[in-house]
Amino acid sequence: MENLEGLRDEILAAVRQAPDLGALEGARISALGRKGRITALMKELGALAADERRHAGQILNALHDDVTAAIAQRKRELGRAELDARLAEERIDVTLPVRPGPLGRIHPISQTIDEVVAIFGEMGFQVAEGPDIEDDWYNFTALNIPPEHPARQEMDTFYLPGAKDGHRLVLRTHTSPVQIRTMQERAPPLRIIVPGRTYRCDSDATHSPMFHQVEGLMVDESTHFGHLKGCLIEFCRAYFGIEDLPVRFRPSYFPFTEPSAEVDIGCSRAGGELKIGRGGDWLEILGCGMVNPKVLENCGVDSARFQGFAFGVGLERIAMLKYGIADLRTFFESDLRWLRHFGFAALDVPNLVGGLHR
Amino acid sequence: MKFTLSWLGDHLETEAGLDEIAARLTMLGLEVDSVVTRASGLEEFTVARVIEARKHPNADRLKLCRLETKDGEAEVVCGAPNARAGLKGVFAAPGSTIPGLGTKLKRTKIRGVESAGMLLSEREMGLGEEHGGIVELPADAPVGAPVVEVMGLDDPVFDLEITPNRGDCLGVRGIARDLAAAGLGTLKPLVIEAVPGAYESPIGVRLEFDPAQRPACPYFVGRHIRGVANRESPDWLKDKLLAVGLRPISAFVDITNFLTLGYGRPLHAFDADKVAGDLRVRLANPGERFEALGGRTYELDREMTVICDDHGAEALGGVMGGARTGCTDATMNVFLESAFFDPVRTAATGRKLSLTSDARYRFERGIDSAFQVDGMELATRLVLDLCGGEASALVIAGEEPEPRPEIAFAPERVATLGGVQLPTAEAKRILTALGFTVGAGDGALSVKVPSWRNDIVGEACLVEEVVRVFGYDRVPAVPVKCAGALPEPALSPEQALRATARRVLAAQGLMEAVTLSFTASKYAEQFAPVPESLRLVNPISADLDVMRPSVLPNLIAAGVRNANRGLSDAALFEVGPQYAGVGPAEQTTAAAGVRSGGAHPRSWAEASRGVDVFDAKADALAVIAALGVASGRVHIEAKAPAYYHPGRAGVLRLGGGAAAPVLATFGEIHPAVLEIMDARGVVAGFEVFLDSIPAPETRAPSAPPELSPFHPVARDFAFVVDKDVSAAAVLAAARGADTSLIADAQLFDVYSGKGLGAGKKSLAIGVVLQPKDRTLTDAEIEAVSEKVIARVAKETGGVLRT
Fold first, then answer.
1. Between chains, do A126 and B587 touch, taking CB under 8 Å as contact?
2. How much is the average pLDDT of A250-277?
3. pLDDT at residue B643 in the model
4. B514 and A130: CB-CB below 8 Å?
5. Residues of A in contact with B539 (CB under 8 A)
6. Residue B249 touches chain A, beta carbons under 8 Å
7. Looking at chain A, which residue has its C-alpha nearest residue B343?
8. What is the pLDDT of residues B493-502, one digit of tens each?
9. Cβ contact (<8 Å) for A334 and B533?
10. B303 touching A (Cβ < 8 Å)
C-alpha cells in the first residue's frame, strides 16, 4: 500500500492518454479487470488487520472511483472525437437544391374572387349563382333593356340556336341575370354577390370573349344611395388596401338602375405609370345604382315597398390594377410562366382577419 | 358629342372657367372625354401673303413662292396646286415643328433651290386629312398675325361621352341647360321668330300609314324656300363645324348640321325642283330600292320609313337623305323637312342597313318631340340670312306627339331613395331649371316632363335628376353593416367545396388555369357528343364554336401550347363549368386536371419518371378526400370513358354498383385523342364532378379513435395471383379476414416475371394487427395470419408465395 500515489498517477496517465477506445479498454482491464492492479490490491485487503483494512479500503475505493470516473471521462472524449471524425466524413454540399416539391398556384382570378367575397362577406353578402346560358328575357328584358334599346344592341351577344318560352338563348353578357333569378326565388331582404363568367362576342387587346364580373344586389325596405356609396367606398379601400383611397360617384346610365352611377377611384398617371391612390387623377372601376323599380316589378317584388342597390365590377380589371397585369388576354392563355408569376400559393386564402394582402 | 367653348357660350351665360365647366359636366353625368385646345403646337405659325408664285426651275410640279412674312420677305418651295399670288397662307418658319409630320423644319435645298420655310396644309397642321392644297386664310387676315387667332383655333373643343338616355344632350343647348341647372351660369333665352309665309308651298306632304303604324312618323313639318343661292357658308359657321371635325360643304348642308349639333334637331333639305309631286311618308315596300346621298343603294323592307315622291323613295326617315333629290350648288329652290321619326324603327333601320348618321344617332335616342316647328323656324331664318330667297308657309302633316306624362313625385324620396336631405324648394328649383313643370304644394308634387326628356318615366328618374344636379359627391356615405354582429357564411356548402378543391389541387402541385367555356367542336366531339343546341350561332372563331362538354380538352390544348414554348412538363387544373345541354341543370362544375412530361422536375435526389395514371388518380383522390368523402365509400372501377386509355383509366364511384354516382374519372388520355389534339407523350388527366360530391353532413363529432396502449404487430405476406386479379381485391380480402384485429393492410410491392409462371403476379402486402386489450401471443398472431391467407385464397385465388 506504500506506493499508491505512484500507482494512481500511472493508471490515470494511461487512461487519459489512451489514444482510442481500444487502448482505453486495455487501460481499464489492467487497472480494474479481474487481474487488474487495483483489483489485486483490493484482494490483498483481506489479509490486513481491521483498522488498517478500513483505512486502506477507503483509500483503494477512492482510487477505484477516481479511475472509473477518469475512464468515463476519457470515453466521452474519445467518443466525441470519433463522432466528430464521422460527421466530418459525412459532410455534404448543402447548396444542393432541395427535392422537388409541389409548384401549384391559384389563378389570380380565383384569388380576386376570394378577396371580393371575403370583403362583401363581412358586410353580410352571400354568394349567389346562375347559369352561363341564359335566355334574353333574363339577360335583357327583365333588366329593363328592351329589344331595340341601344344598350342591348351595343352588347356583343353570343347566341345559341335554341329558345326558351320564346326567348332566344344567349351566353349571359353580364352577371346581372342572377339578380332576376334571385329575386324571383327569394323575398327581400337580400344581400348577394355573384362572381361569375360572362361573355361578349369581341376579341382584341382589351376584350376577351369571356371574362368575369361580380354582381352585387342589396334589397330591403330602406337601403338608399348613401348606403350604396358607403358599401362601395368600403369595398374599394379594402380591396386595394389603401385607407384614404379617393372614391368618386359620377352620374351615368344603366337601364337596370335609377339613379345610376359609375365609380372612379383616385390614381396618378405621372410619368406614364398608373398608380392607384391619391394622385389627382381618376380611373373608372365599376358601375352601380339603385335598382330600377321596373326591374323589381319584373321579378314580382313590390317596388312601392322594397328598394335597394346593385353594382357590377369587372374582375379582370380590378385584378389587373391590383397585381400589375397588363394584358387581359393573358388570363386565359394558361401560360405556365405567367401562372407561376401571377399565381398565389395554395394556402394563401384571403380573409379580413389576417389581412387581405401578403 | 363635340362642341367648342364659344358654341356653349351661345347658349350659356357663364363666368366659369374651362376646368370648372369640364369638372361639372363630368359630375352631371356628361362625361368629358377630352378638352382639346387645338392651338397647341400651332402657336408659332403666322399669316403670310404670297407675293409671287413661279415655276421651280428644276421641277415641274413645284413652285417658288416669294412671301411677305412677319420677318420680311422669304422664298419657299411649295408643291400645292393652289399656291398663287395674293393667297394668304399659314407660314412655318425654319426651326418650327410641323405637327402633322412630327418633324422639325430645317432650311434645306429642294431640287437645288433653298426653301426658307413652308406653307402648310390642314394635314400638316394636324387639323384634318385635307392635303389637296395649302390652307387659304381670309383675304383680310393681317400678315404676321398668329394663325390660331385668325383660324379660331384657340377655342377649346369639348368631347363628351353622352349616355344613350340623354338624347337631349346631343345638342349644345341641352348641355348648356344642364350646366345652368347646376348653377354654372344662366341659360340664354331661345328666341324663335316665326318667319311669315310669303306663299303656299307647291309641294304638299301626306302621312300614309295604317293607324297602327302611325307612330313611325306622327308629325312632319315642311317648308318650301324659293330663290335661294346655295353658296359657301360664312366663316363663323364653317369654323364651328371644322372645330368639331365636320367638313363644311355648302350653306344648306352646313345649316342642317348646325341645327343637329346645336339643338339636337336633324333636318333634311330636298332640292325642291327635283321633287316630283308631293312628298309622302310611308313604310317602304318590300324590296324597294333607295339610293342614299353618297351614291350607295339600299334594299328596303316593310319596317323602314321612307319619304317618297312620284319617283319613289327620296329619303330614309330619320337616317339619311337620297341622292336624286339632294341639294347641289345649283339648287335654287329648297324644301326643308323637320319631322319626328320613331326611335325604335329608326334604330332598327340603321342597324339592318349598317347605315350610321348623325340624324339616326339622335332619332334613335329620342329627339325633342315638340321642336319640329321651332327647328324649322331657326333653319328657315338661317337659310334666308345666308342664301337669300323667300319662305313659304309651313306645311304640316300629322300631329305633334303626345306630351310626356306627368309624374307624381314625393319630395321625401330624395332622402329615402337618394340618400340626401334637401329642402323641397331646392328640388323644385333643380327640376324647374331642367325644364320640368312642377306643381304647387309641399306634399306629393305633380311634375310634367319636358318634351326633350324621353328618358324620364318615373319617380326614381326625378330623384336621379335632383341628386345628379345637386351632386352625387354631396350625398353622405352610410356604412352597410351586417344584420347581426357576425355575418352568415358567404359561401354555401357547395360553393365551399369548389374553393376547397382549388386549394387542394394547387397544393397537389398543379397550376390553376382559367380557360374559355368554349372549345373547338373537333376537340369537344372526342369527349362527348355535342348537341346542336350547344353550337354557337356567332362564334368568335371556328376554334371556339361550341360550349365545352368537358374541361379536359381546353386543358390538354393549354398543355400543347406550353409544350410548343418548350415547357413540356405541365400540370394544370381548372375548376369550372361544363355543359351537357342548355338548361341550367345541365351546366355542372368539374375540377379537372392534366399532367404531362415528367412527374417532377429533374433532380439529383430522385430518379426522373414520366407522369402516369397514378398521378391523375392521386389528384382525384386528394380532392375527394379533402371534400369529406370517407375513403371507404369510394369504389374504384377499372373502366372509364372512351377518351381514356382503355387499360389505364378508372372511375371512382360513391359506393359500389353500376348505379352509384360517378365522383371522378382518371387515367391516361387515349393516344388517338392526343393525336387529334397534337399532344405528344403521355397525358394523365382526371375529372372530379363536384356536383356529385355528397354534401358534407352536419352531424355530431364522430366517435374518437381507440388509442390502444398495446404495441401493434406487422406481418408481411406475398400472394401469387392471376394477372387480372386486382390489388384492391387482395387488400379487401386481407382487411376483411379479421375486422376486430386487422387495423390496416397496404400493398408495397408488385412483381411479375421469373419464377412465377405466365399469367401470374405477386402482390406483397403489409398487414397491421392492433390488439386492444392485451399483447398478442405468437399463437394468436399465427392464427390471424392463417385467416388472412385463407381469406385471400378464397376471394382471389391467391397463394402465399414461398
1. no
2. 94
3. 97
4. no
5. 158
6. no
7. A148
8. 889 999 999 9
9. no
10. no
Amino acid, single-letter form, for residue B418: G
Cell of B702: 364522430
Q: What are phi and psi of B316, to 5 degrees?
A: -100, 110
Q: Could you tell me which of B690, B682, B501 has the C-alpha nearest to residue B594?
A: B682
Contacts of A253 in chain B (CB under 8 A): 29, 163-166, 455
User: Which H helix or E strand runs over B35?
Assistant: strand B31-36
Q: What is the pLDDT of residues B750-768, one digit of tens each?
A: 998 888 888 899 999 999 9
Domains of chain B: 2-38+156-187 (3.30.56.10), 46-150 (2.40.50.140), 205-398 (3.50.40.10), 406-473 (3.30.56.10), 493-692 (3.30.930.10), 713-800 (3.30.70.380)
Chain A residue with Cα closest to B465: A259
Task: Tell me whether A348 touches chain B (CB under 8 Å).
Answer: no
Which pLDDT band, with edges at 50, 70 and 90, does A103 fall under? confident
Chain B residues 10-29 within an 8 A CB cutoff of chain A = 26-29
> Which domain range does residue A54 map to?
4-89
**Mean pLDDT across A160-168:** 90
pLDDT in tens, B199-239: 999 999 999 999 999 999 999 999 999 999 988 898 889 88
Average pLDDT over residues B357-369: 93
Do the Cβ atoms of A120 and A235 come closer than 8 Å? Answer: yes
Nearest to B129 by CA among B270, B246, B213: B246
Closest CA to A291 of A119, A144, A150: A144
Interface check for B163 against chain A (CB to CB < 8 A): the answer is yes
pLDDT score at B700: 61
Residue B569 and residue B531 in contact, taking contact as beta carbons nearer than 8 Å: no
By CA distance, what is A117's nearest residue in B?
B490
Distance from CA of A83 to the nearest CA of B (A): 26
**Is the confidence at residue A315, as pLDDT, over 90?**
yes
- The number of C-beta contacts closer than 8 angstroms across A and B is 272
Query: Which pTM does this prediction carry?
Result: 0.87
Joined together, the cell numbers standing for residue A257 give 338602375
pLDDT of residue A2: 55
